[in-house]
Amino acid sequence: MEGVFDFAPAIAVFPLVAFVIALAFGKHLPKKGAIPGILATGGSLLLSALMLVAVSSGEVYHETLYEWAAGDATSATGVEGIAFTFGILIDPLAALMLVIVSLVAFLVHVFSLGYMNAEGETGLPRYYAGLGLFTFSMLAFVYADNLLMAFMFFELVGLCSFLLIGFWFRTKSAPSAAKKAFLVTRFGDYFFLIGVVAIAATFGTLQFAGDESFVAAAQTAIDDGGTLFGFDAQTWVTITGLLVLGGVLGKSAQFPLHTWLPDAMEGPTTVSALIHAATMVAAGVYLVARMFGYYALSPTTLAIIAFVGGFTALFAATMGVVKDDIKQVLAYSTISQYGYMMLGLGVGGYVAGVFHLMNHAFFKALLFLGAGSVIVLMHHEQDMWKMGGLKDKAPVTYYTFLAGALALAGIIPFSGFWSKDEILYDAFIVGLEEPVIMAAYAMGLAAVFFTGFYTFRMVFLTFHGEPRSEAAEDPHPVGWSIKAPLIVLGVLAVVAGAANLAPVYKLTGLELTFLESWLDGEYGAIEGLTYGAYGELLAYETGVVGTEQLTVMIAAGLSLLLAFSGAGVAWKLYNVPEPVVYRDRLGRVGDVIEANYYQDEYQVWLAEGVTLPLARAADRFDQTAIDGAVDGVSTASLFGSDRLKRIQTGIVTNYAALLVTGFIVLLLVLGYAGGWFL
Amino acid sequence: MTVGIEYYVLLSMLLFCIGLFGILTRRNALMFLMSVELMVNAANINLIAFAFYHGNLTGQVLALFVMALAAAEVAIGLGIILVLYRNFRDVDVTVPTTMRW
Amino acid sequence: MAVVELPEWAALAPVLILAGTALALFVFDSINPRSTNRTVLAGTAAIGSLVALGVAVWFTVAGVGASGLEGFGAIELFDGQLVVDQMALYFMIIVAVVTALVSVASYDYMEGHTYQAEYYSLVMLAATGMATMAAANSLVTILIALELASLPSYALVAILKDNRGSIEAGLKYFLIGALSSAIFVYGISLVYGATGYLQLDAIATQLETGAADGEFAYGGLLGLGILMLIGGFAFKTASVPFHFWAPEAYEGAPAPIAAFLSSASKAAGFVIAFRVFTTAFPLDATSALIGVDWTLAFVILAIVTMTVGNFAAATQQNVKRMLAYSSIGHAGYALIGLAGLGAGSELVMGAAMMHLLVYGFMNTGAFLFVALAEHWGVGRTFEDYNGLGQRAPVACFALVIFMFSLAGIPPLGGFWSKYFLFTGAIEAGLLVVAAALIVNSALSLYYYSRLVKAVWFEEPPAARDSLGQPTGLYAAIVFAAVMTVVLLPGFGPVVETALDAAAAMIA
């Protein structure tokens, strides 16, 4: 496997080439650019799998490929010179993520054949070009070896999501949703950018890994106990970490920057699948995992991550309960699930967070593609109240969707259960010692109930009961290109959990924690970037209730119980031939939830009520004070000019007098300076 | 008995200032020219006095050159004054003020 | 190399060629003063100056005056009264180029003038004086060369004998000039009195020994003398407060003569200032004796000159007068070269030398455009120039180049020299001067672009006859424009030459 890493750049370059081809020649290609896209992502998948194999045989790859700028500034920690580079870092985490991203991208491309091409959409070259660029950006982001490169591709990911969400730019809502997604995530990215600059200025390096990394430098700085920019080193690490976290909150749609994600449904469903499962939203959480060593140095940041994650998990889950649009429900479930991942990472459950990231990628892609399939079946109807009874008419869609739903709800033994349970377990044991984490855990636990409820409400409304519209009675058939990705993802949603059966290990001692070993570097990793190394940095205490086994039982039992009860309530209410709307019974609470807790309203108010007047005031200041000053200067200059030229009177005797006067003034000045008159 | 060098300098400065005064007050172009001559000759006094004081001839030679140059200058000046009179019917230097500001 | 075999006086070849041309034209004038054979006369003048230019360039390339293995070292002639070194040759090149341009342009401009030969003869005599100024190494030769340049200039400005403007300009130029030269001569006499020498290096030696012994008794005289010398240079370079002649002289003079005076004469004024202040008055010794650093005077003069020039130019209605004031402003920029000498770096003086070369092209070109406009008879104000671009696009495009180069817009030669002046000023620690440079350049853009706007964007007045295309003027303008642009890629050698010359002076 020696030379396999030489092909690493190709993983990202393939989709880039597909992007160029689709853009340049898409119109003339038989499938309007789909074929190059499928081939490129297929190639990326193959290479990524090779990387995975190579990493599992104990190799890692960390190489700077290109230095595009260098300076000789000295950082706050005394590092002289800084170089900005492009490089590739492939360690177990990156390799795993590469496979996930390229797999989902590949399946989305295949699915698009059925979803976009077969439905006679126009503008397909643009669509496939967008997908290609999106995949390229995400893959490059995943194996970026430094923070600045990561930031650049992070931004590019944001741009691509803008382009794709606004794909149907002739509608009214799509461009608006695209702008919203772009602006909200950019808002977070400003903080990220400041964070990048701060880290660069502080440590003189932006590398993720190695002795030269900013993580190592930060650790040294904290150990030395000095101050950075007037702050205690630890505080400064917290500040910079939080700044970077701003970008994460935006991209991963965490409270309060989650508002863009539900609107992003305006894009094609395939794009939603890509955004939610593997690219855009995943980028945020992946970034936290990527620089986990840095966050591990700051307990405050971790606690904030955990709390925000737990809160978002519950918050979004409640909103998902009342939605009628199948994609809306899924969107809120995404926010909620990423909340779990943040909770997991925040409590130090690095493996649990990454595990859930992986599982979620599979089952959420599955659910979205399933929803896409349903939309095709339903002749582009998305309202669940108009569906029903699709179970028998589209068995493949139904059973794969059901698998995804079971995983999402966290029902044993589907994949979601294992990872979610591990997150909650990690949060629970830390929470026993730390009240804040306990609160986050409690919210995460409560969210389990709502997750079970809205998931099965969605399943029952869509597939069970009697058809409630003509479209549902006579669904449009779907082809293999839709079914095949569903089946692949359906299988993965069922079995992916086997990658890390932590509770089984803890209860029976069977070594079934493959992912943990993988991330802990048992097969090979870069020093300092392993679960074990992070564990040493963490300052968390953990507790148990009775014995470890008992704790595992309690945690798993609680979450399962809640998941089942949520599902059960949904069963009771909606698994009937003619389900009715219960929302009115929620009264005022329902109104608030239906309105998404007025999140949009207050953000719009912030924009229109606060920012806009401020901008107006600034504009007025610019128009009057600044421009006035500029105009004043010019008027004064011209006036001065008019006066000044009057000394040229035209009378030569005056000139002689002025000349002599000027000479005498010069004489006096010099004489005064030279002390001639003393 | 020798006269101190400072008296020569004072004399030349006096002459220089007289010339300057003439330039500033006289409006007749010819008087202007004469005043300039006074100033140049003040310089000549200096040159010759200092040549004597320093004991080299450089200053005296330069004084000769200066006189020649002054003569050339006057020649040009008279030419200009001639055409001035032809165009403006006057040799008052404050009359031509068509160009100003 | 061939130069080695030439006798030493041959180093003065550019000056001698100019003088010879002048005398030939003078002889012609004596024999046939009313000849209107413009081709022969203008041709002789142009060829003479071009040959002088060629020889000067050849000498520079061959390394005459350059130190080191390649060069021949500075050549001193007549017991050091004259010296031919890199700086002398550099300024001879500027003078010769401008003279050639002016001669070619005058072919058309002076059409109809009765006495042709005397005009060219005077131009060449003045050019000889300026070239000699570049080589003068003693206060005697400086004075003579300066007068040799000035006296024909007075006559040239007043040469349109029936034009009241020309006469008035000549009178004012002459009167201020006479006053200034009287002050200058008096300054020389004082410096001579204080040191006993007129040769520049002898003065320096005297001052250095005097400063070392502490027995120097005439600090006051010396200080006053130096200040009066500065007055003389300020007159020649049109710097405040000796600038009063300039607006009128440039406005009233025939436009080619205005170009000649504002470019070549100014450059010559700077070369003697550079030489006198770098050779004769070593900074440390002089300031020890007179108690003040003479660069202070130049700092003040530079700031005041550029401010007065640019501010007065801003609201002019007459294009030629605007250029006249802008010329004063540029003198202020070039004075930075002397103001910055205190830091002991050759960069800032080299930058001033570069600026004078570039200025030689762009300013001459601009004045020649005015000559062209006067030749067309379109009028003198900005409004009169409206819409000329539609009729004469080539010349007007050249004008755009001149204006933007004068303003210092990046791709053009004027930007680079100004940029070097700016960095030089910063390096010398003259932040105020650098700031003044920036402010004034910004202001200058206003009035330069006003002209561009008038020419290209304003509607022409209702009826305008078709405009002729005089060959000589066009050739000169186009050549100046091309050089202004070509100096951009060719700036490397120019920078090198100027910096070498400046370094040789300071070392």
TrEMBL record, chain A:
A GO BP entry is: electron transport coupled proton transport
Q: What is its main location?
A: membrane
Question: Mind listing the UniProt keywords for this protein, alphabetically?
Answer: Membrane, Transmembrane, Transmembrane helix
Q: Which ranges does the record mark as transmembrane? A: 6-25, 37-56, 93-115, 127-144, 150-169, 190-209, 229-250, 271-289, 301-322, 329-355, 361-378, 398-418, 438-463, 484-505, 550-574, 655-677
Q: Where does the record say this protein resides?
A: Membrane
Which positions carry the signal peptide feature in this UniProt record? none
Q: What InterPro entries does the record tag this protein with?
A: NADHpl_OxRdtase_5_subgr, ND/Mrp_TM, NU5C-like, Proton_antipo_N
Q: Which organism is it from?
A: Natrialba swarupiae
Membrane topology per record: Multi-pass membrane protein
The GO molecular function terms of this record are: NADH dehydrogenase (ubiquinone) activity; NADH dehydrogenase activity
Give any Pfam family that matches. Answer: Proton_antipo_M
| Keyword Cell membrane on entry | no
Protein name, as recorded: NADH-quinone oxidoreductase subunit L
Source species, domain of life: Archaea
Answer yes or no on keyword Membrane. Answer: yes
Domain annotation NADH:quinone oxidoreductase/Mrp antiporter transmembrane: ranges: 144-432
Automatic annotation (TrEMBL), chain B:
For this protein, the parts annotated as crossing the membrane are 6-24, 36-55, 61-85
Record keyword Transmembrane present: yes
Query: Which Pfam families does the entry mention?
Result: Oxidored_q2
Instruction: Write down the top EC class of this protein.
Output: oxidoreductase
Spell out the subcellular localization from the entry: Membrane
Set out the biological process GO terms recorded for this chain's protein. ATP synthesis coupled electron transport
Main location per UniProt? membrane
Protease in keyword set: no
The record, for Gene3D superfamilies, names: 1.10.287.3510
The protein's GO terms of the molecular function aspect are: oxidoreductase activity, acting on NAD(P)H
InterPro entries in the cross-refs:
NADH_UbQ_OxRdtase_chain4L/K (IPR001133), NUOK/Mnh_C1-like (IPR039428)
- Alphabetic keyword roster: Membrane, Oxidoreductase, Transmembrane, Transmembrane helix, Transport
Q: Name the family the entry cites.
A: Belongs to the complex I subunit 4L family.
PANTHER family per record: NADH-UBIQUINONE OXIDOREDUCTASE CHAIN 4L, NADH-UBIQUINONE OXIDOREDUCTASE SUBUNIT ND4L
- Its recorded name reads NADH-quinone oxidoreductase subunit NuoK
Q: Which organism is it from?
A: Natrialba swarupiae
Query: What broad taxonomic lineage does this protein's source fall under?
Result: Archaea, Methanobacteriati, Methanobacteriota, Stenosarchaea group, Halobacteria
UniProtKB/TrEMBL annotation, chain C:
Under the heading Pfam families, the entry gives: Proton_antipo_M
Checking InterPro entries in the record gives: NADH-Q_OxRdtase_suN/2, ND/Mrp_TM
Give the transmembrane region(s). 6-28, 40-67, 87-107, 119-136, 142-161, 173-196, 216-235, 255-274, 294-315, 322-341, 347-373, 394-413, 419-448, 473-491
- Entry GO MF terms: NADH dehydrogenase (ubiquinone) activity
Name the keywords, alphabetized: Membrane, Transmembrane, Transmembrane helix
Compartments, record wording: Membrane
NADH:quinone oxidoreductase/Mrp antiporter transmembrane domain residues are 136-443
**Annotated GO CC locations:** membrane
Keyword Membrane among UniProt keywords = yes
Predominant localisation class: membrane
Membrane topology reported for the UniProt record: Multi-pass membrane protein
Asked if the Swiss-Prot or TrEMBL record annotates the protein with the keyword Transmembrane, the reply is: yes
Single biological process term from Gene Ontology? ATP synthesis coupled electron transport
Protein name, entry field:
NADH-quinone oxidoreductase subunit N
Origin species, per record, is: Natrialba swarupiae
